[in-house]
Amino acid sequence: MKKLPLGIQTFAKIRDTEENYVYVDKTKLALELINNSGYYFLSRPRRFGKSLFLDTLKAIFEGRKELFSGLYIEDKWDWSRQYPVIKLSFGAGLVRSQKDLDNSLLWLIDENQERLGLQCKYYKEDIKNCFLDLIKQAYQKYQQQVVILVDEYDKPILDNITDTDFATQMRDGLKHIYSVIKDSDPYIKFVLLTGVSKFSKVSLFSGLNNLKDISLVKDYATICGYTHADVLQSFHAHLLNADVNLEQLRNWYNGYHFLGEGVYNPYDILLFFDNHGEYRNYWIDTGNPSFLIEILRKKVFFIPDLDNLSISEADLGSFDVDDIKIETLLFQAGYLTIKEVKTIFNQRVYQLSYPNLEVRSALNDIIFKYLLSDHSIAKLPLFNAILERDMEQFENAVYELFASIPYNNYVNNDIQNYEGYYASVMYSYLAGLGIQFIAEDVTHKGRIDITIATPDMSQVYVIEFKVIDKEKHKGNAITQIKQQKYYEKYQATAKLLYIVGIEFCKMDKNICGFEWEQVVTDNSA
């Protein structure tokens, strides 16, 4: 059984015959891309195989034929032609100032000069001219046009995304470097920039009008990540060894769509097999989405909307540091994916949702913990309440949940006046637990705030939230369920059906009313 290339981003190391690592062949797509010389951009979530793909391209352009034995490209590329490759990677460390960025750029230029046997004739402090000189000298020495590969081009900006001033400083510093590429066109054969996010061309790539974005081009949808066929073929022995249920594997780690065939998260697949087929939150646990949570908080985002967002093609494409669209950021970071494409009035509109169970459950668990002052709120009471059909325990679990929201969450805003805020807290709680539920559940009479349903429909809870001013308005939530007859949607299918009205007082910033009733169903004993 071949070894798993955990954490390895170097193509030569993976292809070392003595090591015997699994390699999913991406050279067919690499060949299609490099046969069309030009300037390209690719956005994919972190740990999705971008760095390995760039290193694969580097090995191809350097003519290292011995590494490609048995791969698609082996007899389809002219290995006699070798090109100088300049590779810039911003993946290492954090960049927190202009000085950090300058030092990082100087180190990258020095590293490329040393590898190519060149020396900058300008003062090192003149970063822009040193980079330009590096390109020209490489062209002159090797008598071939230069290949430029940039990995994590956007990381210095994302490291500072919650501080607009610092993020703008990073963007402007990178803009000067990327502008050199535009000025070096006669010396360049091929360029590929990769990263998580796509910043607008005007703000970062001014002048690079010929930069082609292949992030949502169907032909390159599987350029990173593993297809189902890849998993079956390349991990066949591992599948057998772990006795894997393929449908469960799909639900947990597949589901990423870039306007083509869906792909698995490669990091999840490798860790899944390394842990003998244990389903866990591998990918999401390696990141720190705190900046996303902070942006969600600032924009008072309605969390249940994450299940079904609509966004235009223009808005999904890019954003800027002073104009962050949370939907775009969540998609590019890998927390949402494209589920459907519609055309409305000649405009493309994308329907976004969670890619899989891992992201839906883990992201909401993170959001939930952020919302609470007591991160140790027990998850079992609500599970037990549903299991034991104990509405008193259900009520106590919900009271404990909302009582744990810190007072600071209500400071300098009026979120306590919005039912959507409380629905968001409940949504993240349920999603983090992995409980099956529907937010904004549509009926012919309106929308139910949240419906909880057990998989076998043995129990269904129809829940309505209301924010009220005074005690005398109590009962409005359950009254609305009755008047609109929301419960009718489940009377024919549920065995036990409960309607629950939960009310929050603006002054108390907590639950001040909790009422429930059991509704007779067609399946009642």
Automatic annotation (TrEMBL):
Pfam families: AAA-ATPase_like, PDDEXK_9. Residues 5-205 form the AAA-ATPase-like domain. The lineage of its organism: Bacteria, Pseudomonadati, Pseudomonadota, Gammaproteobacteria, Thiotrichales. This is Putative AAA-ATPase.
